[in-house]
């Protein structure tokens, strides 16, 4: 939809005042570019393309084409034939940069057929619900929300307990992202609930069908917390990866159930969306003024139709470095200094601002949300120790 004359006028005046760069002749193209970038950020990716070439397979190894992901140490997975198949990969066995090939351990084919051809990298390592991936009894339950029922997995501890953990995946991710956190929490005597939230596959869409960067999704996590409380939970542990971290932080800020929260675990979290979006604008060659205007449009009620959102997305409300004094819950914050998607800077700054609350565990080598993949024992030990405090 083309911007209205009034929208263009407001954007041109506002941008010229705050950034000093929009001219009258460039207003329409600048607003259109900024609105396009904003929509890209807020629109769920319904389909993920194959991104990994399987070159050869034998009983114990898989040879892949070299990408930024396929050469990183650790445990990962591959989706095969869309999502009809899945296999698990271990560490690098051989790296042949001259031929563009990397050979990794083959740890198992979970389902489907692994053959040469195209596949899709799975950073979660696991590719099925907890009963199939972890061998743990799993209840498939529904959490009632304002938008309708949301599917969730419930993995109970071995002994009855009133401690529950709620695990929140990131933007464009699947619930399988959270499976890496189930074992150490369950081993610590905690029931684990892995809910969906709006715009997930198999879950209801939000009013606009777009991500709100945690500013609306938190309500679904509040409903998951209510489900846990209604089932007998007296203590809650909130765990979030990437945008899931931003959702958890909004839940802590806005939910009437935060008094039940005892521990917060954040893995590669979005502490400040403004920082993340500025980073991606630079990575994609978006001029800084256009990136700045896109974030401005997200938060303006009059620009909702331009951006395609039901409610304004005020990025300033997601800056927890600036809002550090408002935090009240102790946190374990895990983040790699080599994270290419959500820069580590705001996590470091938050830890410096609130050393009384935040225990910061910096990682190296791991790409975004892959800290467990590179050092699973260290990750699980840190989680066990934290929830025991």
Automatic annotation (TrEMBL):
UniProt cross-references to SUPFAM superfamilies, sorted A to Z: alpha/beta-Hydrolases (SSF53474)
Superkingdom of source: Bacteria
InterPro entries per UniProt: AB_hydrolase_1 (IPR000073), AB_hydrolase_fold (IPR029058)
Pfam assignment, any one: Abhydrolase_6
Gene3D superfamilies: alpha/beta hydrolase
Alphabetized GO MF terms: catalytic activity
Span of domain AB hydrolase-1: 166-332
Name the record gives this protein: AB hydrolase-1 domain-containing protein
């Amino acid at each position: 939809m083309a911007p209205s004359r009034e929208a263009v006028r407001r954007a041109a005046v506002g941008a010229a005042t705050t950034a000093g760069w929009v001219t009258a002749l460039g207003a329409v193209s600048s607003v259109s570019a900024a609105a396009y970038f904003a929509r890209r950020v807020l629109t769920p990716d319904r389909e993920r393309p194959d991104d990994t070439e399987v070159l050869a397979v034998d009983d114990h190894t898989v040879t892949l084409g070299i990408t930024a992901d396929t050469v990183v140490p650790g445990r990962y997975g591959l989706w095969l034939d869309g999502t009809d198949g899945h296999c698990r990969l271990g560490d690098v066995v051989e790296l042949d940069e001259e031929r563009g090939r990397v050979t990794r351990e083959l740890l198992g084919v979970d389902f489907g057929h692994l053959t040469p051809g195209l596949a899709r990298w799975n950073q979660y390592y696991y590719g099925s619900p907890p009963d199939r991936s972890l061998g743990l009894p799993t209840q498939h339950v529904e959490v009632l929300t304002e938008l309708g029922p949301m599917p969730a997995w419930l993995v109970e501890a071995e002994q009855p307990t009133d401690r529950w953990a709620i695990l929140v995946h990131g933007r464009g991710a699947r619930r399988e992202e959270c499976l890496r956190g189930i074992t150490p929490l369950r081993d610590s005597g905690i029931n684990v609930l892995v809910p969906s939230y709006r715009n997930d596959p198999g879950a209801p869409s939000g009013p606009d069908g777009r991500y709100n960067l945690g500013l609306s999704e938190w309500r679904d996590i509040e409903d998951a917390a209510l489900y846990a409380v209604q089932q007998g939970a007296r203590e809650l542990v909130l765990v979030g990866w990437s945008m899931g971290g931003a959702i958890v932080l909004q839940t802590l800020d806005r939910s009437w159930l935060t008094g039940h929260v005892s521990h917060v675990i954040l893995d590669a979290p979005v502490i400040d969306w403004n920082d993340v979006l500025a980073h991606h604008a630079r990575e994609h060659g978006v001029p800084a003024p256009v990136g700045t205007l896109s974030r401005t449009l997200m938060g303006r009620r009059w620009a909702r139709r331009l951006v395609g959102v039901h409610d304004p997305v005020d990025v300033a409300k997601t800056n927890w470095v600036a809002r550090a004094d408002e935090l009240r819950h102790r946190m374990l914050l895990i983040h790699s200094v080599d994270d290419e998607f959500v820069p580590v800077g705001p996590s470091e700054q938050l830890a410096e601002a609130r050393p009384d609350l935040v225990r910061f565990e910096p990682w190296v080598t791991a790409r975004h949300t892959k800290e467990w993949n590179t050092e699973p024992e260290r990750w699980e030990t840190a989680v066990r120790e934290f929830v025991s405090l």
